[in-house]
Known about the structure:
- This protein is an alpha+beta fold.
- It has one domain: Gcn5-related N-acetyltransferase (GNAT) (Aminopeptidase), CATH 3.40.630.30.
- It has helices at about 10-25, 35-45, 95-105, 125-130; strands at about 1-5, 50-55, 60-70, 75-85, 115.
- Helix 1 packs across helix 2.
Amino acid sequence: MDYRVMKQEDFKNCALSLMKAFKEEPWNEEWTYEQAYTRIDEIMSARVSRGYVIYDGEVVVSMLCGRIMTYLGFKELWVDEFSVHPDYQRKGIGTSMMQYVREQLKQEQEKISYIVLNTEKGYPSVKFYEANGFKADESLVFMAADV
Length: 147
């Protein structure tokens, strides 16, 4: 497996992997290639963007991308997308990616204090994140409104 920092030339393979990962249970999402590529490109378009990939040959088996954000006296990585290719799930790849990202964040010039993200309640992803040191913050509420 080849672990590396995401570059623009990885976006195509990342989009294909995202499409496959989220097509499966429990998400059942039908991403087009254009939607997946655009999402990754948008997330990775800022100077504070960070992305990471794991390749097995030409296949992206995991990708994680987000943004380094400042909050009061600290910085945190806000994860906007994280996926593991369905053929590689339940093999430790996700945990390995989290370890790799933590190692990379320790090399940042400014100290990154936290990794934060949103995920769906009741989905297997909750148990995965808890097993990797994440805790739900009961003081927060996710809110959305129509435009």
